[in-house]
Amino acid sequence: MKITGLVLVALAVIGAIICLIPMVQTNSPNDGVQQPTTEQARGPSALLVPLAVCGVVGAAGTLMAIYGGKGYFVSNDPRVRN
To answer: How far apart are CA 23 and CA 21, in angstroms?
Structure first.
């Protein structure tokens, strides 16, 4: 579970970076694209939903890494085969 949590955190960070690149990039290749109307500009950005999903995945991965166990246990009972 701990490794799964760490993988989820890494995927969340990679996804958040991919979502934030267009927001931070000042000279985008879409400079010639028509600007959005006032109705479109008032709505939430299209990247907020994937960014929120990345946040939820990151939080779940962090909780799994902190509180997750090994996912298996070794029994010392001689009647049980491991």
So the answer is: 5
